[in-house]
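S1.2 Input.
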Amino acid sequence: MYNYLFFSISSHGTQVPDLNEDERDYADEAFCPTDLAQKGDGWDPAHIITDDELNDLFLQLPSSVDLECVFDTCHSGDGLKVIDLWDQKPRFMPPPSLKAFKQIKDYMPRGMAESLKAKGIGVDHTLWSACRSDQTSADAKIGEEWHGTFTYYFCQNINKSQNKLFRSELLERVREDLVRGVFTQIPQLDTEATKKDASAGLSRGMVPTLA
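S1.3 Output.
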């Protein structure tokens, strides 16, 4: 039986009306998979991944399992004005129609990690976010390829250190790399204090080496 689970997603984020009405602002955070599709005025629920779905999935884990999540996405367009360089693109997908936008226009985004914490996930687990909830994370052309910038520097630093960095050190190095790359996003780490001063539960082979 495993005792550690690492979940990572690097994609565009979006906002959708809350269908089960568990949100005060009547909107859910959602990820945009490669088969994202529109249905009517909004996104097809069968082709997005919402925070409710992740919450239901994670709550099924045994209490003995240590969950570590990395979310490289954003769920707000508020920070888009700070990204206007040709080699940077925001990781946000607005609703596909004006009607869909009006359904969530007064929504105050929290970010996926904050949303899951509000639903009960995160108290005993580790949640990494590529940016603050009021920022946007970026796709960028690094070398000759496009990457989610947080995912790129996160993997680079884990591999260079052979996963010998404490989480707090890893966070600091990723932030420093983003500043050097002229990115404005500020990654966040939510976990217990004792876990910040411990290395991630990853082995070197679990993290891809990026060029």
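S1.4 Remarks. The chain has one domain: 4-206.
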